[in-house]
Amino acid sequence: MKKIITVILFLCLCVGMLAGCGGSEKKNASGSGEIKELKIAVSPYQDAETVKTAVGPLSTMLQTRLKEKGFAVGKVSISVGTSYSAVGEALSAGSADAGFVSGATYVLFDKEIDLLLTALRQGISKDTVDLKAWNNDEPEKFTDNLVQHYRSALVVGPSPKGKALLEKVKNGEKPAWEELNGLTWTVMSPASASGYLYPSLYLKKEYGKTIADLAHVVQAESYTTSMARLASGQADIAVAFSHIRIRNEKNWQTKLGGTDTIWKQTGIIGVTDKIYNDTVCVSKTSKIMQNQKFRKALGETLIEIGKTKEGLDALKVLGHKGYDWADAKNYDDERRVQRELKGK
After folding, report:
1. Residues 57 and 76 reside in one and the same domain
2. Same domain? 81 vs 217
């Protein structure tokens, strides 16, 4: 009898030890840990120094909130890519762990990067393809609504060719391809949705041509450069997100070279379909991002930061008003755009 009791006690002890071991493993598998460095790449929404200075405070915010979630990050390095494609390439190679990129960049590199968040933007007072509404002498304004989409616009400047074409559009006439082809265009990289892809699709629908078919195209490293070229007359037309004039209203005369207000010196001659907002993507090849619990913690952290005043101040330069969890299906239209432009 004593032997039986001894055996039972021994088995109970073993079960207790196993339970204790299981609890320890569960605790260690919680995803917490130390990360030496988190590398974040940001697309060149504006010139590099402006973007880097503005988003710099995100480093401390991320460290603080990730620590609360069990991840001690020694350093958060934020860099600004030389182009949209450069950020996609950095994520693909794993030289960046996470990045703020356009929907177009995500789709171009979706075999090497994963979608995490979709950015929220402040809506604007004009959300239509009706050119009369855009050229009614009433400036666009931001609204209080947070939206998941935006549009791209073809913006002409104060050059003689630009003004002549605007008058034609205001009179309800459609410009001929030859007229557009005679302009000097300033565009972004082919990975930019509003600065290249959607304007190309617009041209394809209207004229059976794309930006690649234009005779005089200059690629800009940022929208700031693009608008400066427009203001100075170096370019006749720029393609950009449809709230570009609101963003550059203050700097048009003081920094960009305009001689009158941006509303008097520019006009809209084309507006694209809706474009889904920018994204936060993570690298599939980054060792850090292979930890699904860290991915989730990073997403939660950015969503939380986007709801704070400090966070919104840092994100302002990107045009982001917060974040929500992303759904890859929402970017199927982006995939369609790219297929059509490739003729597939």
Report:
1. yes
2. no
